[in-house]
Design brief:
By secondary structure, the protein is of the alpha/beta class. The chain has one domain (2-107): Transcription Regulator spoIIAA, CATH 3.30.750.24. The chain contains five helices and five strands; from the N terminus they run ββααβαβαβα. Strands 1-2-3-4-5 form a five-stranded mixed beta sheet.
C-alpha cells in the first residue's frame, strides 16, 4: 500500500493506493499523525480510496480510529472515490452513518465547507 497526500487550503487529501488490509492499513495512523503535526490549521481530512483495490476489517478499524482521533481534534473526516463494492459494504455495516462517503474530493470539500459556514 502506498500513501500520499496533498494540502488544499484547510483540507488534506490522503490517497491510498493498493491493498488497504492488515498490517499495511496500520500505516495510515502514523501517516495521519505526521500530517496533523505539520499542519495545525487543517479542518478537513479526506481519505481518497479510488486507487485502493481491497479493504478488510483491519482497514475499516483503522478508518474508525482515524475518525475518532480527528473528531477529537475537531477535524472533519470523509471518504471519497470508493469502488461500488466498498460503498455497498460500508453502507451494509453502517459506517456511512458516521463517516460520510462522497463521489469526488470536490464534493467533500464543497459540502463540508458549507457545514462549517
Amino acid at each position: 500500500m502506498n500513501l500520499s497526500h496533498r494540502i488544499l487550503n484547510e483540507a488534506c487529501i490522503v490517497e491510498v493506493e493498493g491493498e488497504f488490509i492488515g498490517y499495511k492499513a496500520r500505516q495510515l495512523t502514523p501517516y495521519i499523525d505526521t500530517i496533523l503535526l505539520k499542519n495545525t490549521e487543517l479542518k478537513i481530512l479526506i481519505l481518497n480510496l479510488g486507487s485502493a483495490i481491497q479493504m478488510d476489517s483491519v482497514g475499516i478499524g483503522i478508518m474508525l480510529k482515524s475518525y475518532k482521533v480527528l473528531q477529537e481534534q475537531q477535524i472533519q473526516f470523509a471518504l471519497c472515490q470508493l469502488h461500488d463494492e466498498m460503498i455497498d459494504f460500508l453502507k451494509f455495516i453502517r459506517i456511512d452513518s458516521m463517516i460520510p462517503i462522497y463521489d469526488t474530493e470536490e464534493d467533500v470539500i464543497k459540502k463540508l465547507k458549507e457545514e462549517v459556514s
